[in-house]
Design a protein that fits this description.
Radius of gyration: 21 Å
Distance between the termini: 45 Å
Shape: extended
Helix content: 10-25%
Order of helices and strands: EHEEEH
Number of strands: 4
Strand order of the largest sheet: 1-4-3-2
Largest sheet: 4 strands, mixed
């Protein structure tokens, strides 16, 4: 639920300074982003982020989405996304691509006599 100034009960936690949607990112799953992107471009409405394919790690797999962001007149970011499917995780590529070392116990052996995992 989004508050609308002066309508109904307002649970106002701070002054309504514009843009009202600062810091909010609403995600909307759609069957396809292409019709939305086409409609926005025809209306000369700027995209906050161009369409992209993004993969997110979920355990031993990655979940892909095709997504873009648009900002509404109140400043709310709306991220429209559709599924790009799932794929097996290439752990070595993920570690290099993200720059974050794997800290899961299966990634590194326990040092002899040590109670902590060592890379």
């Amino acid at each position: 639920m989004l508050e609308q100034e002066g309508v109904g009960r307002n649970w106002v936690t701070a002054p309504f300074d514009r843009p009202l949607g600062r810091g909010v990112n609403l995600q909307v799953a759609v069957p396809s982003i292409e019709p939305l992107v086409e409609t926005l471009r025809e209306a000369d409405w700027p995209l906050f982020m161009e369409p992209e394919v993004k993969w997110y790690r979920t355990g031993q797999t990655e979940v892909g989405v095709v997504q873009f962001l648009v900002q509404d007149p109140d400043g709310y970011l709306i991220r429209f996304q559709t599924s790009a499917g799932r794929r097996a995780l290439d752990q070595s590529a993920w570690r290099v691509r993200s720059g974050i070392p794997c800290v899961h116990p299966r990634c590194f052996p326990r040092a002899p006599g040590s109670s902590s995992w060592t890379p």
